């Protein structure tokens, strides 16, 4: 313990000590007094002043949502527009009695239960001074009724907001996609700042794929508003940056021609410019009116679309996976020529059927049922393509083997997603021994090679893949990622080119010759197309046995017969000397290729000659 | 030695005053945080629940401190000081200390965080009190007696300034000076240090004039109400809305996102808005009574010839009074904005625990004085 040092002058020390303690106490009391005086002045004397600051001149930070970019076709026709729409919203903080106000509002304008439900859900998510939308698309009469009653409804706001509108809703439903109200799952994923004040987001298709470009940058303003939320003056404003406008490769004339030619049949049409990879038409029929989705589709409309046997919400052009049938033959022919297994002169005996060595089973040619015999005693490649001879390609497939077939077909884009700039594309199937082992845990059987050789069996393609493959044929191996987007705000954009497919010039010409015969030959399978044609078209017909396109389609006994008919397919490009368009068409349950081929003629006529539209 | 039950029990007046302030804090934080917590955590009681956990830890640590004889603190004061300085260094190491809003003040500790600056305040009080008893003569009559604690203070101040935590710096310096002053250090010693400090400040101000501007910005928050002045203008509006009786508990409008994070350093603004001038005065009265009672305990300790107990009481008084004054002054625009907690009331675990521990220490000193009125210090 330290020694306690006795004080020399205890009395004096004690006096100093007491004096200092008293001084400290006086200081503390003084500071307390300062606080008390300050609080009194703030809370009592200047009460009116501060209450005014608080109540009457409320400062609010308001988001300024950006204008969504517009979408045009290649001719400058507006495909997606923003139109003013009047919205009824409620600012919770300013409403004295929310329930009473809601009852009052329902008496003035019709408010559906789903509107109310969505309103209550949003109410908990938005801040008390933010407007929560209750009803969209107010009519002029409804606006007037609300305006008249506005004086007794504090906190009720009618705002004009730009709303997405699709002038050609159904025509481009699957090509464009649509926007819809932001749902709870999207709220968590989207940038909270950027989407404050924005109610809609791209849900499907181009609208979703290019959401970042179309959305723009949010702006904001600081405003002083009165107790009823009326803006008194804007203190500070940062303008939003509007989203960029998109120009697509789509051509409304070609799109319209495809839709008209399809009529009320189910199917898909894809047209591509082989020079650029730009998609000129993307049709999946039936379509639907995308405008229904913009502000939340009603459950009646939605179940009608969802439960329809025709699955209108299903984008057949990129999600539908079909056997390519005989449309695969020109590409098989290229594989045969490039591999050296066949030459233009080599022939195959055609009795109308084909047998594998050591197997008694007969693989029939489609012509056997019609004529009872083959196409000719011996068939060469030109005839095999022009008349769609199965036996020729059975023989080629057997000699090529499935795995080499895979190698030759893969560069045309089969078995992988094409990478088109839209959502929910499916990859199809290009079979190989490895694929079968992995997907089905089974070995490959030789008979399956024959089926694959004529585009049946396991092989599945989307119409988009078929169009891409046709485009690769048309451009003699120039591979392009198909894309819808042509320009952003007028600045052209294009995806990087892919590695070209190298093949001999004379081989391309040989296949072209066969495809020309399909349309222009005396015995071509689509010779009826040549009537009155003003250009040279290369084509190939195809028929696919029905395996059931949509797994989610409902089985309906009355419809079975019609829905068991074959799918009709057709691929084509034109003009042969310098192709500017490649198309792939499928007509579901069309019976045969004759359902699909005339659509190609209509589409190509429109593109090349500017007819119709 | 006869130790009746009444004599060993803590001073009821002081304990109840502390408890009253804790209750005020719990109510104020629950009310101020309810909307904020609901918005950010989807749980309106998020901060209330955490505060209750802090409260339980704080009271438990108070009970522990009450059971420890003051002699222990007297003997180990320098160890606590070293621990405190070590923690202040630790918090500055990147990766260990947690940075929030540009200040590195927190040590993450599982689900909670520790604020070493709070701990440093208490350690400084205990160390200084012990030092002044051990070197009473030196402190009062010689230069080195004054200079040695100044060196320790300088080290702590430097570490706090690096964080930076100017609020804690002010409190630690003011408390140390106050204790030395009350212990009887010669006045001209203070004059010299004060002159030196003023000179340093002058150099700082002349070299970097923007500091003055920042320091004086608080005097006119309305000049820039949406940026630097935003928190303060919203706080003033909260006060202003209160009038005599307030808008009623739970009815604050300012807490609805106008006053950012109303449950932390500006919790008193919401209390003043909801309970009015009278509610604010009631809390000030509680503080005044608490501070007065602690000073009284210190006086009794002096009379019982227990200078260590007395100095601790003065130190605690200075911390409580200083922090309460600064916090209340800041939220009403009297002082520049500094992140200082309101003792016993503000949300913040370390502050609450340290306040309860200091109060428990004072209660223990009072108990020992009553048990042994002639001689608090055992030889």
Task: Tell me what you see in this structure.
The complex is a heterodimer of chains A (about 625) and B (about 375). Chain A has about 625 residues and is α+β, with helices and mostly antiparallel strands. Chain A has three domains: about 40 residues; about 190 residues, Penicillin-binding protein 2a (Domain 2); about 350 residues, 3-Layer(aba) Sandwich (Beta-lactamase). Chain A is about 35% helix and about 20% strand. Chain A is built from 24 helices and 21 strands. In chain A, helix 14 crosses helix 17 and helix 17 crosses helix 20. Chain B is mainly alpha-helical and about 375 residues long. Helices cover about 70% and strands about 5% of the residues of chain B. In chain B, strands 1-2-3 form a three-stranded antiparallel beta sheet, with no helix packed on it. In chain B, helix 5 runs antiparallel to helix 13 and helix 8 runs antiparallel to helix 13. The mean pLDDT of chain B is about 85.
Structure keywords:
heterodimer, A: Penicillin-binding protein 2a (Domain 2), Beta-lactamase, 5-stranded antiparallel sheet, 24 helices, disordered N terminus, B: 379 residues, mainly alpha, 14 helices, 3 strands, 70% helix, globular
């Amino acid at each position: 313990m330290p020694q306690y040092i006795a004080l020399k002058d205890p009395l004096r020390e004690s006096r100093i000590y007491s004096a200092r303690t008293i001084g400290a106490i006086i200081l503390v009391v003084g500071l307390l007094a300062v606080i008390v005086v300050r609080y009194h002045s703030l809370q009592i004397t200047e009460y009116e002043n501060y209450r005014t600051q608080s109540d009457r001149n409320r400062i609010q930070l308001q988001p300024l949502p950006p204008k969504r970019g517009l979408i045009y076709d290649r001719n400058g026709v507006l495909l997606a527009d923003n139109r003013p729409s009047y919205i009824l919203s409620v600012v919770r903080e300013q409403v004295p009695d929310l329930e009473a106000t809601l009852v009052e509002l329902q008496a003035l304008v019709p408010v559906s239960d789903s509107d109310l439900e969505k309103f209550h859900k949003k109410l908990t998510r938005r801040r008390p001074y933010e407007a929560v939308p209750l009803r969209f698309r107010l009519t002029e009469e409804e606006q007037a009724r609300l305006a008249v009653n506005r004086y007794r409804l504090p906190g009720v706001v009618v705002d004009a907001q730009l709303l997405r509108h699709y002038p050609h809703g159904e025509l481009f439903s699957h090509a464009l996609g649509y926007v819809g109200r932001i749902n709870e799952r999207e709220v968590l994923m989207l940038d909270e700042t950027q989407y404050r004040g924005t109610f809609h987001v791209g849900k499907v298709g181009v609208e979703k794929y290019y959401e970042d470009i179309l959305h723009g940058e949010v702006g904001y303003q600081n405003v002083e508003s009165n107790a009823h939320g009326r803006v008194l003056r804007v203190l500070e404003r940062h303008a939003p940056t509007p989203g960029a406008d998109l120009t697509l490769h789509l051509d409304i004339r070609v799109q319209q021609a495809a839709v008209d030619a399809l009529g009320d049949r189910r199917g898909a049409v894809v047209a591509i410019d082989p020079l650029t990879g730009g998609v000129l038409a993307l049709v999946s029929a039936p379509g639907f009116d995308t405008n229904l989705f913009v502000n939340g589709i009603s459950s009646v409309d939605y179940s009608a679309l969802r439960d329809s046997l025709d699955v209108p919400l299903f984008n057949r052009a990129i999600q539908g996976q079909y056997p390519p049938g005989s449309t695969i033959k020109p590409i098989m022919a290229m594989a045969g020529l490039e591999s050296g297994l066949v030459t233009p002169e080599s022939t195959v005996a055609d009795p109308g059927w084909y047998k594998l060595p050591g197997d008694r089973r007969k693989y029939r040619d489609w012509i056997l049922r019609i004529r009872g015999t083959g196409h000719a005693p011996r068939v060469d490649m030109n005839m095999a393509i022009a008349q769609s001879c199965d036996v020729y390609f059975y023989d080629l497939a057997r000699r090529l083997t499935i795995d080499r077939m895979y190698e030759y077909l893969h560069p045309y884009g089969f078995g992988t997603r094409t990478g088109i700039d839209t959502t929910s594309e499916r990859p199809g199937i290009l079979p190989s021994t490895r694929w079968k082992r992995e997907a089905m845990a089974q070995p490959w059987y030789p008979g399956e090679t024959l089926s694959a050789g004529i585009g049946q069996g396991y092989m599945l393609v989307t119409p988009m893949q078929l169009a891409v493959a046709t485009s690769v044929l048309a451009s003699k191996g120039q591979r392009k990622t198909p894309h819808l987007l042509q320009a952003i705000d007028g600045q052209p954009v294009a995806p990087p080119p892919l590695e070209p497919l190298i093949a001999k010039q004379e081989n391309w010409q040989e296949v072209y010759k066969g495809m020309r015969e399909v349309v222009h030959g005396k015995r071509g399978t689509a010779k009826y197309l040549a009537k009155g044609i003003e250009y040279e078209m290369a084509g190939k017909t195809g028929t696919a046995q029905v395996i059931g396109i949509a797994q989610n389609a409902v089985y309906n006994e009355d419809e079975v017969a019609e829905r068991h008919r074959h799918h009709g397919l057709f691929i084509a490009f034109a003009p042969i000397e310098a192709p500017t368009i490649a198309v792939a068409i499928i007509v579901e349950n069309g019976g045969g290729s004759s359902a699909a081929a005339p659509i190609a003629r209509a589409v190509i006529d429109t593109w090349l000659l500017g007819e119709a539209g | 030695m006869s130790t009746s039950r009444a004599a060993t029990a803590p001073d009821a007046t002081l304990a109840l005053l502390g408890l009253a302030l804790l209750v005020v804090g719990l109510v104020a934080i629950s009310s101020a945080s309810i909307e904020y917590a609901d918005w950010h955590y989807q749980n309106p009681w998020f901060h209330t629940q955490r505060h209750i956990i802090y409260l339980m830890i704080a009271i438990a640590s108070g009970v522990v401190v009450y059971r420890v004889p003051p002699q222990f603190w007297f003997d180990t004061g320098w160890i606590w000081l070293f621990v405190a300085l070590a923690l202040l260094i630790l918090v500055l190491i990147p990766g260990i200390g947690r940075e929030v809003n540009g200040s590195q003040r927190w040590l993450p500790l599982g689900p909670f965080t520790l604020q070493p600056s709070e701990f440093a305040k208490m350690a400084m009080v205990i160390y200084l009190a012990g030092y002044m008893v051990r070197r009473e003569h030196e402190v009062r009559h010689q230069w080195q007696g004054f200079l040695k604690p100044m060196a320790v203070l300088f080290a702590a101040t430097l570490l706090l300034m690096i964080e930076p935590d100017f609020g804690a710096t002010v409190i630690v310096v003011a408390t140390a000076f106050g204790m030395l002053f009350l212990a009887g250090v010669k006045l001209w010693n203070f004059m010299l240090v004060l002159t030196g400090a003023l000179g340093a400040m002058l150099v700082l101000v002349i070299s970097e004039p923007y500091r003055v501007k920042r320091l004086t910005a608080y005097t006119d928050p309305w000049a820039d109400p949406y940026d630097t002045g935003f928190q303060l203008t919203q706080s003033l509006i909260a006060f202003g809305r209160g009038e005599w009786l307030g808008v009623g508990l739970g009815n604050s409008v300012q807490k609805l996102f106008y006053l950012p994070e109303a449950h932390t350093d500006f919790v008193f603004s919401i209390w003043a808005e909801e309970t009015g001038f009278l509610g604010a005065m009631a809390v000030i009265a509680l503080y005044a009574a608490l501070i007065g009672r602690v000073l009284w305990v210190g006086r009794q300790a002096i009379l019982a010839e227990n200078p260590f107990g007395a100095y601790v009481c003065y130190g605690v008084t200075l911390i409580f009074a200083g922090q309460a004054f600064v916090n209340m002054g800041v939220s009403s625009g009297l002082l520049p904005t500094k992140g200082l907690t309101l003792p016993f009331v503000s949300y913040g675990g370390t502050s609450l625990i340290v306040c309860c521990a200091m109060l428990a220490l004072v209660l223990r000193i009072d108990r020992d004085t009553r048990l042994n009125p002639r001689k608090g210090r055992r030889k």
